[in-house]
Fold this sequence. Notes:
CATH topology of the largest domain: BirA Bifunctional Protein, domain 2
Mean pLDDT: 92
Strand order of the largest sheet: 1-5-6-12-11-10-7-9-8
Number of domains: 3
Number of helices: 14
Order of helices and strands: HEEHHEEHEEHEHHHHHEHHEEEEHEHEEE
Amino acid sequence: MKGNWLLPESLADILPTEARRIEDLRRGLLDLFRTYGFELVAPPLVEYIDSLLTGGGTDLNLRTSKLVDQLSGRTLGIRADMTTQVTRIDAHLLNRAGVTRLCYCGPVLHARPAGLLSSRELLQIGAEIFGHAGIEADLEIIRLALESTRLAGLHTVRLDVCHAGLVRSLIEADSAAATRADEIMALLRDKDLPGIADLASGEYKLKSETVAALSALPLLYGDASVIASARKQLPPLPGVTSALDTLEKLLSALDDVSVGVDLADVGTYGYHSGVTFSVYAEGWHDALVQGGRYDNVGRAFGRARPATGFSLDLRKLAGGLMPAAPAPAIRAPVAADFAQDVRLRQAMHALRQAGEIVVQVFPGEQATHDEFVFDRELVESHGQWVVQVVS
Length: 391
């Protein structure tokens, strides 16, 4: 029995105060999403692996834990991300003709932690827009993501934007680059300039102009002036020009937040197709919110649709916030007899219906709570139970 209280590595219990803070955030964000017209869906935690990994790329496969279904003998996956599931619901179950806005919240499990400080279990919440290819959908998703951080109490954040179409154009213009796409994306995410330079050698070496363009991307980071620099340094491929035009238009519409351009902040090759973004805030070691456009992922479910969205981990968000203050509560005793108990229960019920927290303290109990502080108590006065301030 020794050590039976230990949890697997990178997993942790959530204790009362933090659990309440997470739940308050969950409720607040889902209510916010609803005001934008997003409808809540709840896909299952486990699915057949071929459905769960559709369109997700190599990274999602590595993050997904697998098991065998005892009923069918087929391989199941415990979801590591909910976006593909929501895409399946839009494409295969709802099958609507127009724009569909869906939101979700649920646990996801990573086979390995994403970083040294990361948990393997996340509480993912997000919002997705299906059916509109225009920049209007990208702007709505970005603005909702920013408003989500403000609801959590973060009023100074930084938004970094990129465009997956830009890198895709560079890769598709070089047949050797297409065979090393995943490697290139990893090098760009790490801003590994020596590694990018090495792409010019080896069996599948890239064209010199492709390597030069890829080498420029990690250095194209900063304010809106980066776009003008990119136009000078990158080849004038149609996809590159279109991506820079879109980013320029996006920046002109986002004038109420600190925005940066990071042309090496790429997503997953073959998954993201347009504008991608990350939201950073002081107190978190990496991106707090991530999102972007992923058109046509639903094709594998029988229906290609424009799509854009974002997600964040509520446990991660809550972990960087100030501790929640204890909530004021009313302390109630246990009645001495049946008649007294009836009146006491009626009084407690009325207070709870009014939204008050009423905790009945049992005989001999030393009430200890992390979430509550007793600033009032129920006392009997002239046959009635009344609330008095605790001195």
